[in-house]
Amino acid sequence: MTTTLLQINTSLFSENGQSSKLAQDYVEAWRSRHPQGRVIVRDLATNPLPHLTAERFQAFLAKPEARTPEQRAIVAESDALIDELKAADQIVLGLPMYNFGIPSTLKAWIDHVARAGVTFRYTANGPEGLVADRKLTVLAARGGRYAGTPKDTQSGYVRDFFNFIGIRDIDFVYAEGMALDESTRREALDAAHSRIDKLAA
């Protein structure tokens, strides 16, 4: 059976962003071990998604048979993203930090894949994720040093969201201090590459 990896780039610099380059390094290491594997690339800079609006949210809530043509188009876009997610055995997320948070393009992606009854459902025992048995690797590139501090608003949020839809096997690879000086930047990248090689094995 073919193994599939979904690569999600969220840098505003597209494939030239440092987090995207780290994600690509992971993909290349993964390919060397899965030569028959399939890679799906979702670049949110080159193909940005609309941010969630009341109109789009109502399209998700409407019964399929009652949706207008415009609503069906909105839902089809969301369905395509969810199909990519469900087709993947592994997910690699390139994650820069912008103003202490995640890129707004990633938030838009999250808002399009978080669909009740599709990627999660509510039960008597609380919400249950419907996208389980997948591995997520997050390549987080940051100008400063934030991991393990209250200013790291990303890690908990990303972990909580993916846990919510059922993905619990999550690894974070941090490349921090990228804007401090060249020596710190080089050390951060070397450490990240070392960890990537181990995780992709």
Question: Please, could you describe this protein's structure?
Answer:
The protein is of the alpha/beta class and 201 residues long. It has one domain (4-199): 3-Layer(aba) Sandwich (Rossmann fold). Helix content is 41%, strand content 20%. The protein contains 6 helices and 7 strands, in the order βαβααβαβββαβα. It has helices at 18-33, 54-61, 69-87, 104-113, 153-164, 182-199; strands at residues 4-9, 38-43, 90-96, 120-123, 126-129, 135-141, 169-175. The strands form 2 sheets. A 5-stranded parallel β-sheet has the order 2-1-3-6-7, with helices on both faces. Strands 4-5 form a two-stranded antiparallel ribbon. The two termini are 18 Å apart. The model has no long low-confidence stretch (mean pLDDT 97).
Throw out a few tags for this protein.
20% strand, alpha/beta, Rossmann fold, 201 residues
For the biggest β-sheet, the strand order reads 2-1-3-6-7
Strand-residue proportion: 15-25%
Based on helices, strands and strand pairing, what is the structural class?
Answer: alpha/beta
Biggest pleated-sheet summary: 5 strands, parallel
In the CATH hierarchy, the architecture is 3-Layer(aba) Sandwich
Low confidence ranges: none
Number of domains: 1
Function: Also exhibits azoreductase activity. Catalyzes the reductive cleavage of the azo bond in aromatic azo compounds to the corresponding amines. Quinone reductase that provides resistance to thiol-specific stress caused by electrophilic quinones.
EC number: 1.6.5.-, 1.7.1.17
Family: Belongs to the azoreductase type 1 family.
Binding site for FMN: 11, 97-100
